[in-house]
Amino acid sequence: MIWNRASKITSSGNITRRSLLVFLSHSVGCSCFSVPSAIAFAAARRPVPIFASRLYSSSSSNIMDSSSILQETADYNNCVSASVNVGNARVVEEDGGQMWLSLTRSVEDIDNDKTRSYEYTLPIIVTDDSNTKQPVFHNMPPTEVSSNIQAKIYSHQSCKLAILRADDNSNGNDGKTVPRQVFEIWLTTASSPSLVRRIPLPTNKLHGKVIVDSDTFGRPSWSPNDDKVLVYAAERKKPETVSFFDYQQPNQKTGDNDNNPIPGGQHTLGVGKSETWGEQLWKNEPLLDLFLLHTETGRVAKVTNVPGMDDNADSSLGSYTLGQVVFAPDGKSIVYTGWDAGGGQGMPKRLGLIYCIQRHSKLYASSISNLLEHISRQPTTDKDEDVVTDTDYVCLTPNNRMARSPRMSPEGKLVFLASKEGFDTHFGHLALHRMEWKNGAIDVSSEAVLVKQHWSIREQTEGSEGIVEQISFPGLALVGQLPEKCFVSQDTMVTNTIWGSSEQMVRINVNDGTTRLVRACIDGSDKWSKGLTSQRILCTTSSGGIVLKESTLNNPGVIAYIPPDELSKPNIVDEGAAATSVASLAPLSASTCAPVSATTDPVSDFTYQILNLEREGDDGTKWNAPIQSILVLPKQEEGAAKPPLICLPHGGPHSVSTTDYLPTWPFLCGLSKYALLLVNYRGSVGFGQSAVEDLPSRCSDLDVKDVVHAVKHVAESGLVDPARLGICGGSHGGFLTGHCIGQYPDLFKAACTRNPVTNIASMMSATDIPDWCVVEACGIGKYDWNRFTGASAEQLSEMYQKSPIFHSQKVKVPTLIALGMQDLRVPPFQGLEFYHILRSNGVKTKLLQYDDCDHPIGAVCSKADHWINIKRWFDEHM
């Protein structure tokens, strides 16, 4: 990097708009209730300056060592460029046996403050015991994916591809409407792929934006067998409104009163204003409807025999949000998830949905036979208004409080995630259920539980096999949904799940529910020879194999392939599954801030180990899970001083820190030489549902003592400098940081928080998840899901006493506070209040405000600025 392209520093001590930029990937536990591997996307905006705490001397405006700034920039860029954030994977199997993997990799572009995507095409070369000479392939450079492309959906037979894209020359630039969306239909025969049709969707007319959110509401899906029809979810259009003073008499000549705007409705909640699903979803319309698109006639029709369709069409209050839609085996009905958005008994106030899987939802089925026949015909007039009716919808899971993620097996079994009683915590473990397809319909009476919601890891689960770092199978805890194509044979499916401090793959028999751990042994390695690695399914193949990504804290990721015979062998738990490496993707930088290394050596200059600690309660209670922590240590020369330690408790609290790669780890540990401690305190997921439910009503005590116990254990181990301890966390991790420096004011030397919960009592009235405040502070069963009420005086008192603000007068360590000013989850006044208390008490503190960021502080430039500040804050005070 050339200095004159970096920053220009004025004599007044300000960094100009052409500021020094850094490139850093997703921070640890960036969102309150996400696991560390979650990715936050933000709209492009101008770069944010880096307010480096050590850039200037405290006594003058003299510039300090500029070379260290350049080195930090290069270090960040190296760590982020090495990230392997991949998705949309698919394998094409040719007649001769050759297989090709295509996948998309996301890369953060610091120059333009956005995420860019690149598509790779990689050969899968499977060796055998014969002496057959293997072909030699040379990987081509990846190609950038246009930002207009919103989704790619391959048909079941892989002979068609639907590409959803936004039109460049359409409306949508007025801030009130979305750009017109178009489906491009491609024939994907190997000999000559061709674009055969472009179908404009009725965006802003029949519906709003088409949904392509695979983690929450799902993506469009092809019909089976004929590959002619797509079903998709899209936002329900808001009613048109107009000021009282602009209202005009309806057109009496045409009699067209359907599109007349509602006078005076533009400021009314449920009409001109929407009650949204909260944090990060506030720009989206809350209600989603289902639509069919016939790709040969180009006709689009709304599915009307669904729950909520009889509700008031002039209001978005009440009703249901529909998504995760798939076709039934015969292609004449659809199965989908419906979230209660106020139409049932479980949502009197719409609560935040992101990171909160406990919201009431059920599975439904709707016949679409007549609607399919209707859209298969070419319209006879310009305005074909035939009324098409099908039989009424059926609720498939009336006795389950939660049900989602429907998937159909090759022979017609429906599997899905569910919980009969549900749970009050924002995240938890679910069961896997099954229903049979009989006589052209799903047989509701055939519902069976395949994998139970596992309660305690101290009790071995019947029908489950596998141990991961002393943790038996904890039940299913999925980040997102079941894989879109999760079946590898008629009776076997695979999925990812959080298992202790890692993400693992499991194989499930859909006849008897037998669950087996699947550990890929890549290129002859033993299944645990690399330590505790995270392995995640990217996709399955049509022949029954798996493509996966293996990553560790010091290895961004290896793409590998498990063939069908290895995946199906009976002794897979003991031997693991032999896998072939497909690719180790080289660093990919999209920034001018610094060149990157062609290897990943800089990110591997540290080691990590798993700690399983026990701590009984003050009354002798033996908890349902250990305190499992990940200790990360920098490599140091013999005789060097012990490194300082930063403890990083995750957010949630019902989340987890895993061994997956995050750029934060190599930057802080491998390059900045800090030891790191990632504590999965009681309440973390991946250790059974009982461990999750141990924490509610005990927050500020159980979780705080667990964190301090782990810190003291490491401090006394001789591996770190016990006199230089720091703590850093966001959201509930910030809550724990505030408690630790208040309850244990002499333990830590410095602290950093991001959007911290500091006062639960005041947060209750402003957050999008008031249920969280009641459940975590007062306990399970204390929140009324059927009736919205404010907290009682007793509850508010309990919330206050369990908040960091209760101990704020004892805080004395230097504290950095970062706030996303658009945060709806933990409103920024929480951190502001804490900041002013500390400052008035004479505690050294610093406040960072990111005007355009929400809870994760996920915008590329803001995130980079945030972590540069964190590193420099610890440099200065430890």
Automatic annotation (TrEMBL):
It holds the Pfam family APEH_N. Residues 100-543 form the Acylamino-acid-releasing enzyme N-terminal domain. Keywords: Acetylation, Cytoplasm, Hydrolase, Protease, Serine protease. Coiled coil: none annotated. Residues 674-877 form the Peptidase S9 prolyl oligopeptidase catalytic domain. InterPro entries: 6-blade_b-propeller_TolB-like (IPR011042), AARE_N (IPR045550), AB_hydrolase_fold (IPR029058), Pept_S9_AS (IPR002471), Peptidase_S9_cat (IPR001375), Peptidase_S9A (IPR002470). This is Prolyl endopeptidase. It comes from Seminavis robusta.
